User: Which sequence fits this backbone?
């Protein structure tokens, strides 16, 4: 395995990927037979626990306490992650350097990427024979006749991230956040040791989405307020949420992360409406820009206006066209979201 630098290694550890540096390594036990992890200076009990997870027969049922990922420093495991996403620092005789990296390893394993959590969640669903969306608990799960069920989000309590639930949200972020918290059964600690319902500091974690178009592509985090803004724009303009998500990805790309206010303002400036096809928009745009009037005033027949060339120019440089069930939603290209 090619060695990497520590800064990249910590990112890969948070993703539960195999990684090696000069003194640090991370190994996932998804294929335990290939995971050669020496016990180093672990205590006998900790070494036995590690050995049991590594040597567990393939046919055996792995429980939530089974080790999933191990971080070692100078040949000794300093932290590991269980299948329940619990971070454990095993008992061991560690140097000062190892103790320092043990804290960093525990922090990295406490900040798992979305892909890592989804893999552990799938293992839990299989282990517990559960289906996250059976039934999907939502605010309005009655399907509209003739239309597919609306978009869904896969959500979990951050304190128990591998227990996931599919649910719907509404255009209202506060209502949606409270609803998702109720779906997951999460509670937030209060200062007096009890619980409260203030979710601003620790909101439910959205691990996956369905029905929001290309906005979801290659994202590690999802912002509930942005998803609610997509829902609101879709409802206000009678569009599928997927179409709004496609536009957002086309307009903002993968690096910008605009907020709901920016998205709403940009959408108002960009959306021109639904058209039967590209040529229909081109004709409307030709008329809007005054070309039809100018041609008539000059006595030039409309047929001499090159609609095909104008269509190519518009859709190559000036507008996005997103197909929606036989029609085309057209958006003017903006620059505000790309710089967000």
Assistant:
């Amino acid at each position: 395995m090619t060695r990497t630098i520590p800064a990249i290694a910590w990112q890969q550890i948070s993703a539960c990927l195999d990684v090696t540096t000069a003194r640090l390594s991370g190994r996932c036990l998804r294929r335990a037979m290939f995971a050669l992890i020496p016990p180093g200076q672990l205590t006998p009990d900790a070494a036995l626990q590690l050995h049991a997870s590594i040597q567990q027969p393939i046919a055996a049922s792995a429980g939530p306490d089974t080790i999933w990922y191990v971080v070692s420093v100078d040949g000794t495991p300093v932290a590991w992650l269980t299948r329940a996403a619990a971070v454990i620092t095993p008992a061991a005789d560690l140097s000062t350097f190892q103790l320092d990296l043990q804290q960093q390893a525990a922090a990295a394993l406490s900040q798992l990427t979305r892909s890592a959590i989804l893999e552990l969640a799938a293992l839990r669903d299989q282990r517990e024979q559960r289906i996250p969306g059976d039934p999907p608990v939502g605010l309005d799960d009655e399907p509209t006749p003739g239309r597919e069920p609306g978009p869904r989000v896969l959500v979990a309590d951050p304190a128990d991230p591998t227990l996931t639930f599919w649910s719907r949200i509404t255009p209202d972020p506060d209502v949606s956040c409270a609803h998702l918290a109720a779906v997951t059964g999460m509670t937030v600690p209060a200062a007096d040791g009890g619980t409260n319902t203030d979710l601003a500091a620790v909101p439910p974690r959205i691990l996956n989405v369905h029905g929001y178009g290309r906005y979801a592509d290659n994202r590690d985090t999802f912002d509930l307020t942005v998803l609610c803004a997509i829902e609101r724009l879709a409802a206000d303009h009678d569009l599928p949420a997927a179409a709004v998500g496609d536009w957002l990805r086309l307009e903002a790309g993968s690096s910008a992360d605009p907020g709901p206010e920016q998205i709403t303002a940009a959408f108002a400036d960009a959306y021109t409406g639904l058209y039967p096809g590209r040529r229909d928009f081109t004709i409307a745009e030709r008329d809007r820009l005054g070309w039809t009037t100018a041609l008539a005033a000059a006595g030039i027949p409309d047929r001499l206006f090159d609609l095909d060339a104008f269509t190519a120019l518009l859709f190559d440089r000036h507008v996005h066209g997103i197909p929606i069930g036989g029609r085309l939603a057209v958006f003017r290209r903006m620059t505000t979201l790309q710089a967000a």
